[in-house]
Protein 1
Amino acid sequence: MQIRLPRRESAPAAERCELCSAGVAAEQPHLVEPRTRALVCVCDPCAMLFAEARPDARYVRVPRRARSLDGFKMTEAQWDALGVPVHLAFFVRSSPADGVIALYPSPAGAMESLVPPGAWNEIALENKAIRAMAPDVEALLVHRVGDAREHLLAPIARCFELTGMIRKHRTSILGSARDGADAEIHGFMARLKAEARVAG
């Protein structure tokens, strides 16, 4: 299943809140619609309206900051059991699906699959931080391209940013990235890790 990506960013002066049409900064907040996983760019005042998650709310506010996962544990067998066909993916606890969804980049955009509950629970038992992962808005980002073994809790907006970057290169990540995407992926992960704080 292919899902909708956030619309391409334009110059900061042209950015508008998708709820009230007010101008927004380059680093604008985002909301997500859990049912469709569509992102909405909003201004700070509109984002404040969704600061507290409500069960009946159409949108949920996306956090801005990634969190590093020191000492994250996952064996090769556990990774294989997740059933993801590529080496770069993010995993979201989906309220509508009542389970964990794996989303991964492809030349056609973000693809998704439902993660086997037993496979996810086995990893979660050894990693307390992902058991407290905020549903719908926060993702476990796993980077295993080449020799990389990187794991972060990242805002879903940043994960879709990475997906859009890979789509731009129209490259496969079934093995190692090519055509300049490899450097961009490593650079993106380095920036995200620099921004992150350690998850408790």
Protein 2
Amino acid sequence: MRKLKVSELNRISVEEFKEAKKLPLVVVLDNVRSVYNVGSVFRTCDAFRVESIYLCGISAQPPQIELHKTALGAEFTVDWHYFKDTRDAIKSLHEQGFIVYSIEQAEGSTMLQDVQLDKSKKYAIVMGHEVKGVQQEVVDMSDNCIEIPQYGTKHSLNVSVTTGIVIWDLFKKLR
């Protein structure tokens, strides 16, 4: 087996990316404090052609050198919007017809593998602060919560890792 060269990866240009059909998914970052996590989320959203990222509260916004370090230019391809208050972002998403899921361990949450999606609808996922998670007020505004089952001693994952897992699963269900 031979590793592929960069020239063999069939990468599209920024312009082609902007014009390409997007996954009907918005990723909302609710006060994600690490600029590196925000950059990683941008890169994952680029990989799966996510429609947009909503950066909320203290979540870092481009341009920032540290964000670029992990985004590797994805901050130029993926559309993003800033909201001072995450609740305003959720309200806007609901007004646009999105179904909003907070990614959180909560009473009555749906395990990721059990989530059923309708390909004719639009979805948003809310990712929370690295320590505090998604704000309770935001959970209350969400249509439901999705939880990733975990079987070790640490029932938490890094927010950028969690985002990648959830996007991959939703991508498979929506494409």
Protein 3
Amino acid sequence: MPIWIVYVSVMLLFLGCNSGNDTATKPPSSEPSGVFEGDVRSYQHGVDFLKRSEGRYWLVWASSGVPPQGEDEQGEWIHDVYAASINANNPEIKPFKLISEVRAQEPSSAAVAADGKIMITMEDAFEADDVYAQTYAIYDASLNPVKPYRHIVANGGHSGHVTAAGGYFVVAYSEGWVDGGGVDDLGSGDDVLLATYTSRGDLLHVNDVAVGERTRDWWPLLAGSPKYVLVLWQQFVDDETHARLLYRRYDPETNSWRGDAAVLLEAVQYYTYDVQYLEALDSFLIYGTDAQGVGFARLLTQEGTMAAYHSALPPLVREAQPAIRVRSDDEVTAVYPSAPTGLTVLSVGSSSIELERTVAQSYRWFYSGTDGIFTDDNSVYFVSLSPDGIKEVRSDLK
């Protein structure tokens, strides 16, 4: 096994804001990490790297100020949406405010379409007390407004995320809230829906993903290939402290489902899962942490075949995304943050998922959002949202 010399530099980046959010307008928070008293998502929540055509990245995230302020004196959340241009060869975060309004715009979720246009969606408490909506804006590749903030995905929508599939944007979001059960017995979402847009942000379709009185479903995540979108969400399980993890494939070109909803895992830790499309393998990588605290990974082809799986991995950090590097036509390296510290390195082939190694480091990840990129063949760069601001974690693999 090669020796990994890990350099981890954790640098505080203080962010800025001038908006607010009443906590009564949003689904209840989940448990603190044990590192910080209270819900750290009140400081920052939701982060994405977006690859640009010239090789740089946009970093997009939601934060409550410069430095992050957390809740205001009335207990309101006050996030705005920020962006920074990132050079992968020498990452440096110089934030600018992209979306600013009263109350909160979080968690932010961003995606880039095949023509370079960018959609940013967020749960938004702009309208009034006890009212929230899933909203969005469209930008060109330089983050100039094409369809400026604020447009509505759904009044009453929350916890939404966006992906791109070719020339389409697809937003999955929750509706409704049911008290009781869930994290700290605070309740769960009720339904999951999906909205399809052109790359200019024009609504084409709205579809039910999991809607009805029989189940309680929420926190949808999704990934897009050139053809399909894979939607992943959690479903409430009565009298249990874990959720059921489900998925479904959607074709935005024909506005049709490719098969029925299916259970991927019977018992997953709340909010602790993710999905990524691996272009080199033309497959979706789904991974997370099960109810026993053990990590898992599944490789699903575009046609819905389970091509590979691993059920004995280090646990994933909640709301964390991986750094991905293509090694060859049939091998991809995926590096994800392990709970509570460290990194997990997977080697993913067209029919295999292997634990290549784990990397020890001292930084303790927060649950409010983490994403990463490779800066070269042997180096990864992660950003992790925290009460102190964005923390940068660099690991060099040699």
